[in-house]
Automatic annotation (TrEMBL), chain A:
Annotated Gene3D superfamilies: 3.30.70.20
Domain of life, source organism: Bacteria
Pfam families per the UniProt record, alphabetical: Fer4_7
NCBIfam families xrefs: PorD_KorD (TIGR02179)
Name the UniProt record assigns to this protein: 4Fe-4S ferredoxin-type domain-containing protein
Key words, A-Z: 4Fe-4S, Iron, Iron-sulfur, Metal-binding, Repeat
Essential cofactor(s): [4Fe-4S] cluster
The 4Fe-4S ferredoxin-type domain, residue ranges: 33-62, 66-94
InterPro entries in the cross-refs: 4Fe4S_Fe-S-bd (IPR017896), 4Fe4S_Fe_S_CS (IPR017900), PorD_KorD (IPR011898)
Lineage: Bacteria, Candidatus Wirthbacteria
Organism for this UniProt entry: Candidatus Wirthbacteria bacterium CG2_30_54_11
Automatic annotation (TrEMBL), chain B:
Matches recorded under SUPFAM superfamilies: Thiamin diphosphate-binding fold (THDP-binding), TK C-terminal domain-like
Keywords: Oxidoreductase, Pyruvate
Protein name in UniProt: Pyruvate ferredoxin oxidoreductase
Annotated ranges, domain Pyruvate:ferredoxin oxidoreductase core: 264-368
Gene that encodes it: porA
Molecular function GO labels: oxidoreductase activity, acting on the aldehyde or oxo group of donors
Pfam families: PFOR_II, POR_N
Length: 94, 390
């Protein structure tokens, strides 16, 4: 988090004047548990990627196959949706 | 002073005529007695091609205020009007408009809140929203409605303020009674209100902004402090804008109007149309040698505590009249704020709370004379109902 600004420094009415500044908001701090990925079990079905409300599942090529490759923990708020939709037991909340 | 034309106008006509001359980009409206006459007039101006305004007929006042908010956030100049239940229904969005610091002007023909349902004038509607961050100005008669509406545009849009303004008038008593109103030329009004110039708005594609995002424990408080600071900034700016408008109309405005206060011993404090009735009573009692005076607050938000207390300190006793009950409170809302301001400034004026006129109950010159006489006789009753069968 960047240092908190004063009432004199921020735009009025809560207006956001720097587009894309939600990147500075690390919702990962909300989580009590977060998913762990077992890449060996992942089939690359992409369910988790499409269901994650915060676009936190990283993907890429593993041995030439499309797979989930990791979690962006600084934004993952620990909702568990990805774990619920994974049919292959590749994600677990911890 | 600029040229004027005489019109036979109700308070509603005066509000809608000012809106026509201001020619806003958007008016969103829903009919609500007794305000309906305002937006009905305005709809006719739209149909007759006399304004360039986009007229939005919404399905409720909540949507009216939402549409007005949208129009202002997009960068437009927008206005609306409402009363009573309409104001209560839009209350959520009333707070959003000021919270997002969106300048707009809303004419309100004050009317009693339900229940029981009642269409007549009192101040329970405006008191419901008075702490939601709108500048609140009150008008005694159609002429004052007209002038307050025009000044409100400039006050609202001033870059140091950026708060919405509610221009109040008494439902039916003012909104539907015809009086002479001197109106300015269209060009004079246009020149005074000028073009809206805000540096940030949604449809500025070169400088994209987000309006209305979430703020939690980290920033919400700062944003509310800013909103309150803007109210106090308005304390400095409103007199400047009024002085500028005075050059056009030749009239003096101010936080309050004093009537025969110079050597007064007792005074009544009352807003809106009742101040007009009270002036007649002051004149009649002065004829009898009784030293009575009147203080008519024009604004209650921002609350002009210094000006009101300075005026009140001229008298030994005062009655503060509220046309609404704050149920369970020790007296009316205006009475309480004034008493508190008086105490903080070491004032010694003895104050009495008068509750009157609910649901449009007549307040007669005899009623007001009775209040003055009570003050002169040293009536010690803290809270007094006037005009109710107890
Ligand atoms: S727990 Fe929720 S936020 Fe975190 S990766 Fe899974 S779906 Fe996304
Ligand atoms: S839902 Fe499970 S199997 Fe499918 S891509 Fe995500 S982790 Fe892999």
């Amino acid at each position: 988090m960047s240092p908190l600004k004063t009432a004199r420094e921020i735009p009025i009415g809560g207006m956001i004047v720097e587009p894309g500044n939600s990147l500075n908001y690390h919702t990962g701090s909300w989580a009590s548990k977060q998913p762990r990925l077992d890449i060996a079990k992942c089939t690359g079905c992409a369910f988790c990627m499409n269901y994650c409300p915060d676009d936190c599942i990283k993907s890429g090529q593993v041995d030439g196959q499309f797979r989930a490759t990791g979690i962006k923990y600084e934004y993952c708020k620990g909702c568990g949706v990805c774990v619920a939709v994974c049919k292959f037991d590749a994600l677990k909340m911890e | 002073m600029s040229d004027t034309t005489k019109k036979a106008f109700t308070g509603a006509d005066a509000a809608s005529w000012a809106m026509k001359q201001i020619n806003p980009d958007v008016v969103a409206a829903y009919p609500m007695t007794p305000q309906t006459a305002i937006v009905q007039n305005f709809a006719r101006y739209v149909a007759d091609g006399l304004v360039d305004t986009e007229y939005v007929t919404a399905e409720s006042e909540h949507s009216v205020m939402s549409a007005t908010i949208g129009a202002v956030a997009a960068g437009g100049r927008a206005m609306t009007a409402t009363s009573s239940a309409g104001l209560a229904l839009m209350a959520e969005m009333v707070g959003v408009a000021s919270g997002l610091r969106l300048p707009m002007v809303m004419a309100v023909a004050n009317r009693a809140l339900s229940a029981p349902i009642n269409i007549h004038g009192d101040h329970s509607d405006v008191y419901l929203v008075k702490d939601l961050g709108w500048i609140q100005v009150f008008s005694e008669d159609p002429q004052e409605v007209y002038e307050n509406m025009i000044m409100a545009v400039r006050i609202s849009e001033h870059p140091d303020i950026q708060l919405p303004v509610e221009v109040n008038q008494d439902g039916f008593i003012t909104s539907h009674a015809v009086e002479r109103v001197d109106v300015l030329e269209d060009a004079t009004v246009q020149e005074f209100v000028g073009q809206k110039k805000l540096d940030k708005y949604l449809l500025d594609l070169e400088h994209p902004v987000t309006i209305g995002p979430l703020e939690l424990q980290d920033y919400y408080f700062e944003t509310q402090k800013q909103r309150n600071d803007a109210m106090f900034k308005a304390m400095e700016v409103i007199p400047q804008i009024e002085a500028e408008f005075s050059k056009i109309t030749g009239k003096i405005y101010g936080w309050l109007e004093e009537y025969r206060m110079d050597d007064a011993e007792v005074a009544i404090v009352v807003m809106s149309s009742t101040a007009g009735t009270a002036k007649g009573v002051v004149d009649a009692m002065r004829e009898q040698g009784k030293k009575v005076g009147l203080i008519k607050p024009r604004y209650i938000r921002p609350f002009p505590a210094d000006a009101l207390v300075a005026s009140l300190k001229k008298v030994k006793r005062a009655a503060v009249m509220d046309r609404a009950i704050s149920f369970g409170a020790e007296g009316g809302a205006l009475f309480n704020e004034l008493s508190s301001a008086m105490y903080q400034r070491d004032g010694q004026t003895h104050m009495q709370s008068i509750l009157f006129g609910l649901g449009g109950r007549d307040i007669t010159p005899a009623d007001i004379e009775g209040i003055f006489q009570g003050l002169l006789d040293g009536d010690e009753q803290l809270i007094k109902y006037v005009g109710v069968r107890e």
